[in-house]
Specification:
By secondary structure, the protein is mostly helical. It has a single domain, classed as Di-copper center containing domain from catechol oxidase (di-copper center containing domain from catechol oxidase). The protein is built from seven helices and four strands. The chain has helices at about 10-30, 30-40, 65-85, 165-175, 190-195, 215-225, 235-255; strands spanning about 1-5, 115-120, 125, 300-305. The longest helix is centred in the last third of the chain and has 20 residues, at about 235-255. The protein binds copper (II) ion (CU). The site of copper (II) ion has 3 residues, from α6.
């Protein structure tokens, strides 16, 4: 079973291996396939005809398939990393641990994801392995990008001024239903998926503490730059962010299904929902069905738990001076 660790638990060697494998996928052009894949699945939502088609649904966002689609996306990325080095797994960035000091979070160190963009340089990242000046992380500018010009860009805290808190995350974990009709991104749609994706704002729930987008969406906004548009996998932190989103879902699933190991009751819709979002629908562009990505153990991976929720091993005193 593969173990996906918290980025805080990675050794220097593990960080180096992950970064090197990303750079290698970039050099071969494989990495950019992920950017295009994510872009492609989102692109119809911004075509001019799309808002006029009430039946059109994005295959990976603003609906129940948000979590399964990104789980499949991570699996494909991880398989490509493992083809380079079988010991690599995607680490997760638990952003709730960085609320107090987000600018100095371990994820942004020079030996890992690198830091913030520089305003006077059109928000280009200036430090770490993915910095524009190092020439190893080519990021083209897209026509629909608000920040034209090449290079990886970040704008910490500019679009959203704070990361989600542990309390914000609790609101999602407390949801008992996965999703509810009409299964979209309206702020009034109750359920775990819409809460974690981040569409339940203060307008939908006065208990929400901060304005604007929440949880998953809020992290994209807080990082800013290349994390804002449809091409957000351009920033490799995308995968660490979505790995945590996937962990939150896996933890929620484990809690909901703990008595009977049944997954279907903790997904919705089973049938008659929007196309591509039902339990037995195929996750495009793959052949996997939503029902086939429900159980992470069956997919041969698990998540390292935070020290606070891990069982504390009983201390065994091996002193030879004891009787
Ligand atoms: Cu995302």
């Amino acid at each position: 079973m593969k173990l996906r660790k918290n980025i805080r638990s990675l050794t220097d060697v593990e960080k180096q291996k992950f970064v090197d494998a990303c750079l290698q996928l970039k050099a071969t052009g494989q990495y950019d396939q992920y950017v295009h894949q994510h872009h492609q699945v989102m692109v119809p939502t911004v075509l001019p005809h799309e808002p006029n088609d009430p039946d059109y649904r994005n295959g990976a966002h603003r609906g129940p398939s948000f979590l399964p689609w990104h789980r499949a996306f991570l699996l494909q990325f991880e398989a490509d990393l493992q083809a380079i080095d079988p010991s690599i797994t995607i680490p997760y960035w638990d952003w709730t641990q960085d609320v107090a000091d987000p600018l100095n979070a371990p994820v942004w160190k020079d030996d890992f994801m690198g830091g913030n963009g520089v305003k006077s340089d059109d928000w280009r990242v200036a430090s770490g392995p993915f910095a524009y000046k190092n020439g190893k992380w080519h990021v083209p500018s897209y026509p629909d990008d608000d920040l034209p010009g090449p290079g990886l860009k970040r704008q910490f805290g500019l679009v959203a001024d704070s990361l989600p808190t542990p309390e914000d995350l609790q609101m999602a974990k407390r949801e008992s239903l996965y999703d509810t009709p009409p299964y979209d991104s309206s702020h009034s749609v109750r359920g775990f998926r819409n809460r974690l994706e981040g569409w339940i704002t203060q307008r939908g729930d006065p208990q929400v503490k901060t304005t604007s987008s929440q949880l998953h969406n809020r992290v994209h906004l807080w990082v800013g730059g290349n994390m804002l548009p449809m091409t957000s996998p351009d920033d490799p932190v995308f995968f660490l962010h979505h790995c945590f989103v996937d962990k939150v879902w896996a933890d929620w699933q484990a809690r909901m299904a703990q008595d009977n190991d049944q997954w279907a009751p903790h997904y919705a819709p089973l049938t008659n929902g929007p196309e591509g979002h039902n339990y037995n629908d195929v996750l495009k562009p793959w052949t996997l069905k939503i029902s086939e990505v429900m159980d992470i153990k069956a997919l041969d991976y698990e998540y390292e738990q935070a020290p606070s929720v891990m069982a504390i091993p009983r201390r065994v005193n091996k002193s030879p001076f004891l009787p």
